[in-house]
Amino acid sequence: MEIIKKIWKVWLRPNLLTKDVDNDYTAEVSTVGKTLRNENIAQRIIDEGSEIKYDTLLSIINQRDRIVREALQEGTSVLTQVCQLTPRVIGSWIGSTAKFDPEKHKITVTAVPSAELRKALQNVGVEVLVVKETSAYIGLVTDTVTNLTDGSITPGDDVLINGERIRVAGEAEGVGVFFVNAEGVAAPVTRRLTQNDPKTVIARVPADLADGNYTLRIVTQFSNSAVLLKEPRTIEYPILLTVAKGEGDRPEIE
Fold first, then answer.
1. Counting beta carbons within 10 angstroms of the beta carbon of residue 200, is it exposed (0 to 12), middle (13 to 18) or buried (19 or more)?
2. Residue 34 burial (CB < 10 Å; 0-12/13-18/19+)?
3. E strands within 31-123?
4. Mean pLDDT of the residues in the chain
5. I need a surface site. Which of 87, 101, 104, 183 has the fewest CB within 10 A?
6. Is the pLDDT of residue 36 over 50?
7. Distance between CA atoms of 91 and 107, rounded to whole angstroms?
8. Which helix (H) or strand (E) holds 214?
9. Distance CA 232, CA 191 (A)
């Protein structure tokens, strides 16, 4: 029996994929404040007693990431002690002579846990907190082009957002749907929402989003009563969304 060394704390949320079942839940790992960046990794190495200077370590880590990106651009699979990254093209190809069509096909990368990571996860236990308060939250985002729910999104096309109390309402400053990049810059959805209900919002991803990771943010004054909230409520999807657009037949990964 594996020894439990780490604990994941999870919230239970209603399963949005089984709407006809009342007592079905999914687990959401509580990751608030736990995003590890290259700067944090370099500092952890220093804290473990490395004699290499912090700036040198950070430079090496960033260089390593660049080499991985370039390998994936070249169509090379990358295997580390964390995961295997494999280039993929998603979409339907009609006929044996079909050509790549960026309107129908999506260039992306899949990640599969390595043997080392799978072994490490055997030492993880789970602590169930409670059923998370069903006030306002985003529970699932689906790319309507690929029908994927893995966080990948397509600029210029719609995403289906499921949750609770997410209807965009009110005229206060800042109300709307936004895609926020790693630097905190928010790109608003300017097109009229295709669907705007308390449990479902369909929004058009801005066409000019650069490659990278984004936080989906909804700011709304919606409430369950006829009276709007006095102050806008901010709701964020806990899973980062990723744009990895293709250029020609080659992936370009930031």
1. middle
2. exposed
3. 78-79, 83-90, 106-113
4. 88
5. 183
6. yes
7. 9
8. strand 212-220
9. 20
Q: Which helix (H) or strand (E) is 179 found in, with range?
A: strand 176-180
Distance separating alpha carbons of residues 82 and 63, to the nearest angstrom: 17
Q: Helices 38-47 & 54-73, crossing angle to 10 degrees? A: 130
Cα–Cα distance for residue pair 252/168, rounded to 1 Å: 33
Q: Is 139 helix (H, G, I), strand (E, B) or coil?
A: strand
In the block, tokens 């169509």 appear at 75
Q: Please state the φ and ψ torsions of residue 223, each to the nearest 5 degrees.
A: -140, 175
Please tell me which residue, 4 or 73, carries the higher pLDDT value. 73
The rounded distance, in Å, linking the Cα atoms of 93 and 5 is 47
In this prediction, residue 13 carries a pLDDT of 75
Give the pLDDT score at 219. 94
Residue with tokens 């749907």: 177
DSSP state of 58: H
Question: Is residue 38 scored above 70 in pLDDT?
Answer: yes
In angstroms, rounded to a whole number, what is the distance separating the alpha carbons of residues 77 and 116? Answer: 17
Mean pLDDT of 160-177: 93
Task: Count other C-beta atoms under 10 Å from residue 171's C-beta.
Answer: 8
Given a contact cutoff of 8 angstroms between Cβ atoms, the answer to whether 254 and 210 are in contact is yes
Q: Which domains does the chain possess? A: 6-127 (4.10.520.10), 138-247 (2.70.50.70)
